[in-house]
What does this fold into?
Amino acid sequence: RVGKLDARIKDEKIPLKYNLIGQETTGIGGFMKALRTIPVMMDIAEYVENYSPDAWLINFSNPSGIIAEALLNNTNVKMVGLCNAPIIMKREAIQRVPEGTSNIRIDYVGLNHLSWITGIYCDGREILQDQLFEKYDFINMKNIPKMDMDKELIKSIRSIPNSYLKYYYYRERQLQHMKEEEKCRGEVCLEIEEELLKLYQQPELIEKPAILDKRGGHLYSEVAVSLVSAIYNNKNEEHIVNVKNNGALDFMANDDVVEINCNVNKNGATPLSLKSLDNDHIKGM
It folds into this structure.
């Protein structure tokens, strides 16, 4: 994290003075972080190119999509961008699958923190559209203020939205919430990390501290290790990652970085084309 949490706090608080969203990855706050982070990531990529050109660079640094766009289009490093939101959304979606289903396919499309699950296929049958209006209290990322989605909005988007889309769908409400909060998210994280460092100094600590659940980053380690394993062991597994589009989405340029289902093996991540995406809302976003 370039500038550490002190810089994140500025990313989140400065925009509020100008009635703009201050958030780690979205809006002007996210772009401020990108401007600090990209030059450092470009330096790291240069080191990888010079000293270990066959190595893979797996990036979690936010904003993950913009950093992937910068590195994949301006360096020769072998790189994949990661986020924990897709696996959280995918696990929530799987809870909708009927018992006894033997084959599951989940269609996921978008950019990092601007994404949707557009279909859930159970043994070849799409079930999401029939469920949406009855079960639309979707999972909420812990670092995003909870805000219920309007039923009319769900009718319009016909998909399960990423939690971060609330900063776009409900901009004014989110902005007001941020202004009214006693502390921004970065300040909360700083307090959590200070408490964690004190706890980690205790030799008798043998369990994960409960306060760690409040920090965010759920399932990061699982996502990273499973991706590395899929590359190293040539598994041909399906993972949702950030890669160049390369024709997978016909409404995006080939060199645009998208967050999409990919086949992952020793050659990296190859985006899997969606069979169809009849959704003007998503294309417009």
Notes: The chain has a mean pLDDT of 92. Residues 85-178+217-284 form a domain with the L-2-Hydroxyisocaproate Dehydrogenase; Chain A, domain 2 fold (CATH 3.90.110.10). The radius of gyration is 20 Å.
